[in-house]
Design goal:
The protein is of the alpha/beta class.
Length: 218
């Protein structure tokens, strides 16, 4: 668990990290549990805004997932919401392991102004984000198409280099789109492994070069 008081001591976990954020009651906890095949590592709640700290989950020592506080209609005091925003921004600015931010949008309700503002905050911190539409089982196909089109339109003024090029649509309840989302997230661990391997090869080459350094002639 990460709180604002420990934000300046975020550890480098030596594995890539992704985080998940969305408005209150977007289905974040249910999606986290569905991604790990139904294990209840995040506790769903009927009370919006239950997540009040940053919860970190280790997914098989290959990927770390951070559950960020929800934004939107959580019935909490204004000063608490301000503190949440400060904590999330501090995390985005400081996390040494963060590779991608997963932004959830409720497909049954559509895009909100707060979602678009959050995207700007994420890119302002130099982070890449992706959009995942949740609860597609509750959304008519025509409405889903309209929501995807709205998301694409809202992205047009943003930095394309910091946007994952695919929009995912999922249902945690009916296991829709989860295989594709898992595959997408696995890209981060694969890229991390390849970079680590390349670093080891480079360091190994330097070490061999030092051992076989030609003697200096008198």
């Amino acid at each position: 668990v990460i709180v604002i008081q420990t934000m300046d001591r975020l550890p480098d976990l030596k594995i890539p990290q992704v985080c998940m954020v969305g408005h209150s009651n977007v289905g974040k906890s249910s999606l986290i549990n569905a991604l790990v095949y139904g294990k209840e590592i995040a506790r769903p709640s009927n009370q919006p805004g239950r997540t009040r700290h940053l919860f970190v989950f280790d997914l098989g020592q290959r990927l770390s997932l951070v559950d960020l506080p929800g934004h939107g209609h959580a019935k909490v005091a204004r000063q608490v919401k301000v503190a949440w925003r400060a904590m999330v921004k501090s995390y985005l600015d400081r996390s040494p392991s963060l590779r991608r931010v997963i932004c959830l949008v409720d497909s049954s309700e559509g895009l909100r102004e707060a979602d678009v503002k959050l995207w700007a905050t994420i890119q302002g911190a130099g982070r890449c984000f992706m959009v995942v539409l949740t609860k597609v089982d509750r959304c008519h196909p025509e409405d889903l198409h309209r929501n995807v089109t709205e998301v694409i339109a809202a992205m047009q003024h943003l930095d394309k280099d910091l946007i994952w090029p695919y929009i995912h649509a999922v249902s945690a309840e009916y296991d829709l789109g989860l295989k594709e989302l898992r595959a997408s997230l696995s890209v981060e661990s694969q890229a991390f492994d390849e970079a680590a391997l390349q670093t080891r090869k480079t360091n190994s080459g330097l070490a061999v070069g030092r051992r076989h350094k030609a003697p200096v002639l008198p």
